[in-house]
């Protein structure tokens, strides 16, 4: 399997693992840290979490365009080094406005790095190996998600700043390794005459009906999924040893992804990526409902498993969906434009924080049933997209 990967792909996947493991030591605990240590209200914490995704709405599109225009590696290196400074800021910040600023920069760094790295993987990978490469990247993220929270729990990420400093150090090293890679490896870039202007790029995106409808559906699914990093940890933290319980739920999430990813991907190949994503919105919504109905820790694990299966159905196929419909000379732009789905991550935590304040932890059934509607609403859009893709025969064969 590994022989199918070139050195650039391998470097990105391994680097993604270490960088994400560092992030998972801190960000999943950020809302708890803000409310328990800094005394910030649930609504303010939700808004701070959401601002990261809010800025990604536009910065992802710009970052993807810049990667097409000026090179994937340059954008990746710059964003990772800035990311390191952001986590240093988290470690020393005290004011609410500063947390807003830092998490906004966190979102910008992520939305510049992500489309650039995915477009680079698409550039350097043979068509028949793309399913493998994208899924290895996703698996690396989820192995990191299994390891990171355990280290974060041991380091007291919900109440201390030591994990922020370690994360900053890891990102600095990752930036250095990317710079080293850029000096040793070359990637053929597209001819300048084929590069589109920013205005033309916007025009192409606006007139791509399949892409726009797909983004709407995915955005609603993302809004439901965003409760994983905002409402769910605040809700679970109200339990006895809630922080520890949430840490274990994160691990369950990661393990479920690793177990379910391969069979779900194999089944998803029989249909289109859009069908898999559509079914994922329904499944993750059901998982949210179960969080409100179940109270025993073991039953919450069951809710997390269902929720995670929906996550896998949505996110393992998103990169393939974009690769399938993107114009060859505009892949960075298309991957970046998927940052518009961060609208879901932006308003999802705010809605979750408001509903949590309104219903309280004692009415979890009403709380999570309301949040599940966000995810359910994405299904009709994505199901229609699957129909359009089939009608236009805009499909690509992938092998695992």
TrEMBL record:
PROSITE patterns: MFS, SUGAR_TRANSPORT_1. Its main location: membrane. InterPro entries: MFS, MFS_dom, MFS_trans_sf, Sugar_transporter_CS. One of its GO terms (cellular component) is plasma membrane. It is a multi-pass membrane protein. Keywords: Cell membrane, Membrane, Transmembrane, Transmembrane helix, Transport. Signal peptide: none annotated. It is found in: Cell membrane. The chain crosses the membrane at residues 12-34, 40-62, 134-151, 163-181, 202-225, 245-262, 274-294, 300-322, 334-359, 365-389. Residues 8-390 form the Major facilitator superfamily (MFS) profile domain. GO terms for molecular function: transmembrane transporter activity. Pfam families: MFS_1 (PF07690). SUPFAM superfamilies: MFS general substrate transporter. Gene3D superfamilies: MFS general substrate transporter like domains. This is MFS family permease. It comes from Anoxybacteroides voinovskiense.
């Amino acid at each position: 399997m590994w022989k199918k990967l070139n050195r650039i792909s391998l470097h990105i996947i391994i680097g993604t693992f270490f960088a994400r493991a560092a992030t998972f030591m801190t960000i999943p605990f950020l809302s708890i840290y803000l409310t328990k240590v800094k005394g910030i209200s649930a609504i303010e914490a939700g808004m701070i979490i959401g601002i990261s995704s809010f800025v990604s709405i536009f910065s992802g599109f710009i970052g993807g365009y810049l990667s097409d225009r000026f090179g994937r590696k340059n954008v990746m290196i710059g964003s990772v080094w800035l990311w390191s400074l952001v986590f240093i800021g988290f470690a020393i910040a005290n004011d609410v406005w500063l947390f807003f600023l830092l998490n906004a920069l966190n979102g910008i760094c992520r939305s510049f790095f992500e489309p650039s790295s995915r477009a680079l993987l698409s550039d350097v990978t043979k068509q028949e190996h793309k399913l493998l490469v994208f899924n290895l990247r996703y698996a690396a993220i989820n192995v990191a998600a299994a390891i990171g929270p355990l280290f974060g729990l041991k380091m007291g990420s919900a109440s201390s700043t030591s994990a922020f400093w370690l994360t900053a150090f890891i990102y600095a090293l990752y930036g250095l390794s990317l710079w080293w890679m850029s000096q040793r490896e070359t990637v053929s870039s597209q001819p300048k005459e084929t590069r589109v202007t920013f205005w033309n790029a916007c025009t192409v995106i606006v007139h791509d009906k399949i892409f726009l409808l797909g983004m709407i559906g995915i955005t609603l699914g993302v809004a439901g999924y965003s409760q994983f990093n905002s409402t769910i940890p605040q809700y679970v933290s109200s339990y006895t040893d809630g922080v520890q319980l949430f840490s274990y739920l994160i691990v369950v999430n990661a393990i479920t992804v690793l177990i379910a990813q391969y069979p779900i991907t194999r089944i998803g190949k029989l249909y289109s990526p859009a069908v898999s994503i559509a079914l994922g919105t329904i499944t993750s919504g059901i998982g949210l409902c179960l969080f409100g109905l179940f109270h025993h820790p073991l039953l919450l694990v069951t809710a997390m498993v269902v929720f995670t299966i929906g996550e896998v159905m949505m996110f393992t196929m998103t990169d393939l969906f974009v690769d399938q419909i993107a114009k060859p000379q505009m892949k960075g732009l298309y991957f970046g434009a998927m940052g518009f789905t961060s609208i879901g991550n932006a308003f999802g935590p705010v809605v979750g924080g408001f509903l949590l304040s309104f219903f309280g932890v004692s009415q979890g059934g009403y709380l999570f049933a309301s949040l599940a509607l966000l995810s359910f609403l994405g299904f009709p859009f994505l199901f229609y997209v699957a129909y359009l893709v089939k009608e236009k025969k805009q499909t690509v064969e992938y092998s695992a």
